[in-house]
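Listing S7. Sequence submitted for prediction.
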Amino acid sequence: MKTVPPPLAVGDTISIVAPAGNIPDRQRYLNGCSLLREMGFQILEQHKEWPGTSFLADDDESRAKEFMSAWCHPDVKAVFALRGGYGSLRIAAQLDLDVISKHPKFLIGFSDITILLNHIACHANMLCLHGPVVSSLAACERSSIERLYHCMIGGWNLQLTEKIEIIRPAPAVSGTLVGGNLSSLVTLLGTGLDLDYQDSILLLEDVNEPLYRLDRLLTQFYLAGKFAGVKGIILGDFCSSDDLDRNEQQRTEEFVWKRVSELAGDQAVPIWGKFPIGHNRHNITLPIGARCTMDSSRAALSFDAG
Protein backbone atom coordinates (compact mmCIF):
# COMPACT_ATOMS: atom_id res chain seq x y z
CA MET A 1 0.00 0.00 0.00
CA LYS A 2 1.29 3.44 -0.94
CA THR A 3 1.92 6.07 1.71
CA VAL A 4 -0.63 8.84 1.19
CA PRO A 5 0.66 12.27 2.29
CA PRO A 6 -1.53 14.17 4.76
CA PRO A 7 -4.12 16.44 3.10
CA LEU A 8 -3.48 20.16 3.14
CA ALA A 9 -5.65 22.57 5.09
CA VAL A 10 -6.25 26.29 4.78
CA GLY A 11 -3.21 28.14 6.05
CA ASP A 12 -0.75 25.35 5.25
CA THR A 13 2.59 26.20 3.64
CA ILE A 14 3.74 25.14 0.18
CA SER A 15 7.33 25.28 -1.05
CA ILE A 16 7.97 25.96 -4.73
CA VAL A 17 11.09 24.29 -6.08
CA ALA A 18 12.79 24.25 -9.48
CA PRO A 19 14.28 20.77 -10.03
CA ALA A 20 14.43 21.31 -13.79
CA GLY A 21 14.21 24.51 -15.86
CA ASN A 22 13.79 28.18 -15.05
CA ILE A 23 11.06 30.43 -16.45
CA PRO A 24 11.75 33.31 -18.86
CA ASP A 25 8.52 35.06 -17.78
CA ARG A 26 8.50 35.55 -14.02
CA GLN A 27 4.92 36.84 -14.17
CA ARG A 28 3.73 33.29 -14.81
CA TYR A 29 5.31 32.25 -11.52
CA LEU A 30 3.72 35.17 -9.68
CA ASN A 31 0.31 34.42 -11.21
CA GLY A 32 0.58 30.81 -10.06
CA CYS A 33 1.52 31.97 -6.56
CA SER A 34 -1.53 34.23 -6.48
CA LEU A 35 -3.81 31.32 -7.31
CA LEU A 36 -2.30 29.18 -4.56
CA ARG A 37 -2.81 31.99 -2.08
CA GLU A 38 -6.43 32.33 -3.25
CA MET A 39 -6.83 28.64 -2.37
CA GLY A 40 -5.84 29.57 1.17
CA PHE A 41 -2.23 28.37 1.19
CA GLN A 42 0.93 30.18 2.19
CA ILE A 43 4.07 30.08 0.06
CA LEU A 44 7.50 29.70 1.61
CA GLU A 45 9.91 32.30 0.25
CA GLN A 46 7.54 33.27 -2.52
CA HIS A 47 9.84 36.08 -3.69
CA LYS A 48 12.87 33.86 -4.25
CA GLU A 49 14.52 33.73 -7.64
CA TRP A 50 16.55 31.10 -9.41
CA PRO A 51 19.88 32.16 -10.96
CA GLY A 52 19.58 29.97 -14.05
CA THR A 53 22.48 28.16 -15.69
CA SER A 54 21.82 27.77 -19.41
CA PHE A 55 18.59 25.68 -19.67
CA LEU A 56 18.55 24.84 -15.94
CA ALA A 57 17.15 26.79 -13.00
CA ASP A 58 20.43 26.30 -11.10
CA ASP A 59 23.35 23.87 -10.94
CA ASP A 60 22.64 20.24 -10.07
CA GLU A 61 23.86 20.40 -6.49
CA SER A 62 21.79 23.50 -5.72
CA ARG A 63 18.62 22.10 -7.29
CA ALA A 64 18.93 18.82 -5.36
CA LYS A 65 19.66 20.71 -2.15
CA GLU A 66 16.65 23.00 -2.68
CA PHE A 67 14.41 19.98 -3.21
CA MET A 68 15.59 18.16 -0.09
CA SER A 69 15.51 21.31 2.05
CA ALA A 70 11.90 21.91 1.06
CA TRP A 71 11.02 18.29 1.75
CA CYS A 72 12.57 18.37 5.22
CA HIS A 73 11.21 21.78 6.23
CA PRO A 74 8.85 21.19 9.17
CA ASP A 75 6.37 23.84 8.05
CA VAL A 76 6.11 22.71 4.42
CA LYS A 77 3.11 20.47 3.68
CA ALA A 78 3.53 20.14 -0.11
CA VAL A 79 6.31 20.62 -2.66
CA PHE A 80 5.21 22.22 -5.93
CA ALA A 81 7.41 22.29 -9.06
CA LEU A 82 8.04 25.66 -10.69
CA ARG A 83 8.08 24.20 -14.19
CA GLY A 84 9.27 21.26 -16.27
CA GLY A 85 11.69 21.69 -19.14
CA TYR A 86 14.72 19.54 -18.44
CA GLY A 87 16.88 18.72 -15.44
CA SER A 88 15.07 16.24 -13.20
CA LEU A 89 17.11 13.37 -14.65
CA ARG A 90 20.32 15.04 -13.46
CA ILE A 91 19.28 15.19 -9.80
CA ALA A 92 16.93 12.22 -9.25
CA ALA A 93 19.69 9.89 -8.03
CA GLN A 94 20.89 12.57 -5.58
CA LEU A 95 17.60 12.67 -3.67
CA ASP A 96 17.55 10.86 -0.34
CA LEU A 97 14.61 8.49 -0.66
CA ASP A 98 14.88 7.34 2.95
CA VAL A 99 14.44 10.91 4.16
CA ILE A 100 11.65 11.54 1.67
CA SER A 101 9.75 8.46 2.85
CA LYS A 102 9.98 9.63 6.47
CA HIS A 103 8.39 13.01 5.70
CA PRO A 104 5.25 12.31 3.62
CA LYS A 105 4.05 15.26 1.58
CA PHE A 106 2.68 15.76 -1.91
CA LEU A 107 5.00 16.44 -4.83
CA ILE A 108 3.06 18.20 -7.60
CA GLY A 109 4.05 18.73 -11.24
CA PHE A 110 4.19 17.19 -14.72
CA SER A 111 6.26 17.20 -17.93
CA ASP A 112 9.93 16.73 -16.92
CA ILE A 113 8.77 16.34 -13.30
CA THR A 114 7.38 12.97 -14.46
CA ILE A 115 10.80 11.53 -13.56
CA LEU A 116 10.59 12.64 -9.92
CA LEU A 117 6.91 11.74 -9.50
CA ASN A 118 7.48 8.15 -10.58
CA HIS A 119 10.86 7.87 -8.84
CA ILE A 120 9.30 8.83 -5.50
CA ALA A 121 6.12 6.82 -6.05
CA CYS A 122 8.08 3.70 -7.00
CA HIS A 123 11.14 3.87 -4.77
CA ALA A 124 9.84 5.83 -1.76
CA ASN A 125 6.42 4.15 -1.97
CA MET A 126 4.63 7.51 -1.80
CA LEU A 127 1.69 8.82 -3.78
CA CYS A 128 2.48 11.90 -5.90
CA LEU A 129 0.27 14.26 -7.93
CA HIS A 130 0.63 14.58 -11.71
CA GLY A 131 -0.84 18.03 -12.25
CA PRO A 132 -0.02 21.59 -13.32
CA VAL A 133 3.30 23.21 -12.44
CA VAL A 134 3.21 26.65 -10.82
CA SER A 135 4.16 28.43 -14.06
CA SER A 136 1.24 26.81 -15.94
CA LEU A 137 -1.34 27.01 -13.16
CA ALA A 138 -2.90 30.39 -13.94
CA ALA A 139 -3.47 29.39 -17.58
CA CYS A 140 -5.39 26.22 -16.66
CA GLU A 141 -9.13 25.86 -17.05
CA ARG A 142 -11.16 26.28 -13.89
CA SER A 143 -12.05 22.58 -13.77
CA SER A 144 -8.36 21.64 -13.75
CA ILE A 145 -7.62 24.12 -10.96
CA GLU A 146 -10.54 22.78 -8.93
CA ARG A 147 -9.41 19.18 -9.41
CA LEU A 148 -5.90 20.11 -8.25
CA TYR A 149 -7.28 21.80 -5.15
CA HIS A 150 -9.46 18.82 -4.23
CA CYS A 151 -6.50 16.45 -4.64
CA MET A 152 -4.34 18.63 -2.40
CA ILE A 153 -6.92 18.68 0.38
CA GLY A 154 -7.38 14.92 0.29
CA GLY A 155 -9.80 14.28 -2.58
CA TRP A 156 -7.25 12.61 -4.89
CA ASN A 157 -9.38 9.44 -4.83
CA LEU A 158 -12.54 11.11 -6.16
CA GLN A 159 -13.79 9.23 -9.21
CA LEU A 160 -13.27 10.88 -12.58
CA THR A 161 -15.55 10.67 -15.59
CA GLU A 162 -14.28 12.55 -18.63
CA LYS A 163 -15.27 12.97 -22.26
CA ILE A 164 -12.69 10.74 -23.90
CA GLU A 165 -12.14 8.52 -26.92
CA ILE A 166 -12.34 4.78 -26.28
CA ILE A 167 -9.74 3.53 -28.76
CA ARG A 168 -9.83 -0.07 -27.61
CA PRO A 169 -12.66 -1.15 -25.29
CA ALA A 170 -12.12 -3.89 -22.72
CA PRO A 171 -13.58 -5.00 -19.42
CA ALA A 172 -12.70 -2.93 -16.36
CA VAL A 173 -9.08 -3.37 -15.26
CA SER A 174 -7.02 -2.24 -12.27
CA GLY A 175 -3.33 -1.48 -11.87
CA THR A 176 -0.86 0.99 -10.42
CA LEU A 177 -1.00 4.36 -12.16
CA VAL A 178 2.44 5.21 -13.60
CA GLY A 179 3.84 7.40 -16.34
CA GLY A 180 3.35 10.88 -17.65
CA ASN A 181 5.62 12.58 -20.18
CA LEU A 182 6.75 10.07 -22.82
CA SER A 183 10.08 11.76 -23.65
CA SER A 184 11.01 11.85 -19.96
CA LEU A 185 10.09 8.20 -19.42
CA VAL A 186 12.20 7.10 -22.39
CA THR A 187 15.27 8.80 -20.86
CA LEU A 188 15.00 6.35 -17.94
CA LEU A 189 15.37 3.24 -20.11
CA GLY A 190 18.50 1.28 -19.31
CA THR A 191 19.28 3.33 -16.21
CA GLY A 192 19.04 2.54 -12.52
CA LEU A 193 16.03 4.86 -12.40
CA ASP A 194 13.95 2.78 -14.82
CA LEU A 195 10.42 1.80 -13.80
CA ASP A 196 8.48 -1.43 -13.59
CA TYR A 197 5.38 -1.19 -15.80
CA GLN A 198 4.04 -4.67 -15.06
CA ASP A 199 0.39 -4.61 -13.97
CA SER A 200 0.23 -0.83 -14.43
CA ILE A 201 -2.19 1.66 -15.88
CA LEU A 202 0.16 3.55 -18.18
CA LEU A 203 -0.31 7.30 -18.61
CA LEU A 204 1.36 9.02 -21.60
CA GLU A 205 1.48 12.58 -22.96
CA ASP A 206 3.98 14.78 -24.81
CA VAL A 207 4.32 18.09 -26.60
CA ASN A 208 6.10 19.70 -29.57
CA GLU A 209 7.31 16.38 -30.99
CA PRO A 210 7.03 15.76 -34.76
CA LEU A 211 5.46 12.48 -35.83
CA TYR A 212 8.74 10.74 -36.61
CA ARG A 213 10.03 11.49 -33.10
CA LEU A 214 6.82 10.28 -31.50
CA ASP A 215 7.16 7.09 -33.55
CA ARG A 216 10.78 6.71 -32.43
CA LEU A 217 9.92 7.26 -28.75
CA LEU A 218 6.98 4.86 -28.78
CA THR A 219 8.94 2.22 -30.70
CA GLN A 220 11.88 2.44 -28.30
CA PHE A 221 9.48 2.13 -25.37
CA TYR A 222 7.98 -0.96 -26.98
CA LEU A 223 11.35 -2.56 -27.80
CA ALA A 224 12.37 -2.07 -24.17
CA GLY A 225 9.39 -4.25 -23.24
CA LYS A 226 7.45 -1.51 -21.50
CA PHE A 227 4.08 -2.15 -23.15
CA ALA A 228 4.18 -5.83 -22.21
CA GLY A 229 2.19 -6.58 -19.09
CA VAL A 230 0.40 -3.24 -18.73
CA LYS A 231 -3.25 -3.47 -17.72
CA GLY A 232 -4.43 -0.34 -19.54
CA ILE A 233 -3.16 2.70 -21.45
CA ILE A 234 -4.36 6.30 -21.09
CA LEU A 235 -3.23 8.76 -23.79
CA GLY A 236 -3.37 12.45 -23.05
CA ASP A 237 -2.51 15.42 -25.25
CA PHE A 238 0.37 15.18 -27.74
CA CYS A 239 0.01 18.57 -29.41
CA SER A 240 1.64 21.92 -28.84
CA SER A 241 -0.14 24.22 -26.42
CA ASP A 242 -0.05 26.99 -29.04
CA ASP A 243 -1.00 24.76 -31.97
CA LEU A 244 -4.27 26.21 -33.30
CA ASP A 245 -4.41 24.03 -36.43
CA ARG A 246 -7.17 21.56 -35.59
CA ASN A 247 -6.33 19.37 -38.58
CA GLU A 248 -2.73 19.00 -37.42
CA GLN A 249 -3.88 18.19 -33.89
CA GLN A 250 -6.21 15.51 -35.22
CA ARG A 251 -3.45 14.07 -37.41
CA THR A 252 -1.11 13.80 -34.41
CA GLU A 253 -3.79 12.25 -32.20
CA GLU A 254 -4.73 9.65 -34.78
CA PHE A 255 -1.09 8.78 -35.44
CA VAL A 256 -0.36 8.21 -31.73
CA TRP A 257 -3.55 6.22 -31.20
CA LYS A 258 -2.84 3.98 -34.20
CA ARG A 259 0.80 3.43 -33.29
CA VAL A 260 0.07 2.63 -29.63
CA SER A 261 -2.64 0.19 -30.71
CA GLU A 262 -0.15 -1.53 -33.03
CA LEU A 263 2.49 -1.76 -30.33
CA ALA A 264 0.03 -3.04 -27.73
CA GLY A 265 -0.60 -5.94 -30.13
CA ASP A 266 -3.21 -8.50 -29.21
CA GLN A 267 -3.15 -7.69 -25.50
CA ALA A 268 -6.72 -7.31 -24.28
CA VAL A 269 -6.06 -3.98 -22.62
CA PRO A 270 -8.25 -0.88 -22.77
CA ILE A 271 -6.72 2.10 -24.58
CA TRP A 272 -8.18 5.59 -24.09
CA GLY A 273 -7.43 8.76 -26.02
CA LYS A 274 -8.17 12.46 -25.58
CA PHE A 275 -7.68 12.20 -21.83
CA PRO A 276 -7.31 15.77 -20.48
CA ILE A 277 -3.69 15.76 -19.34
CA GLY A 278 -0.71 17.46 -20.94
CA HIS A 279 0.60 20.83 -21.99
CA ASN A 280 -2.75 22.51 -22.54
CA ARG A 281 -5.24 24.40 -20.41
CA HIS A 282 -7.15 21.27 -19.42
CA ASN A 283 -4.61 19.34 -17.34
CA ILE A 284 -6.38 17.45 -14.59
CA THR A 285 -4.51 16.11 -11.58
CA LEU A 286 -3.99 12.34 -11.20
CA PRO A 287 -2.41 10.36 -8.33
CA ILE A 288 0.76 8.65 -9.55
CA GLY A 289 1.35 5.46 -7.58
CA ALA A 290 -2.30 4.96 -6.65
CA ARG A 291 -4.27 1.84 -7.50
CA CYS A 292 -6.35 2.85 -10.52
CA THR A 293 -9.36 1.20 -12.14
CA MET A 294 -10.27 1.93 -15.78
CA ASP A 295 -13.93 1.29 -16.55
CA SER A 296 -14.47 1.77 -20.29
CA SER A 297 -18.21 1.18 -20.03
CA ARG A 298 -18.55 4.45 -18.10
CA ALA A 299 -15.30 6.17 -19.15
CA ALA A 300 -14.56 6.35 -15.44
CA LEU A 301 -11.36 6.24 -13.39
CA SER A 302 -11.38 5.39 -9.71
CA PHE A 303 -8.47 5.33 -7.27
CA ASP A 304 -7.33 3.97 -3.92
CA ALA A 305 -4.02 3.59 -2.09
CA GLY A 306 -3.65 -0.03 -3.21
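Caption to Listing S7: primary sequence and predicted C-alpha coordinates for the chain studied. The longest strand covers residues 173-181. DSSP finds ten helices and 14 strands in the chain.
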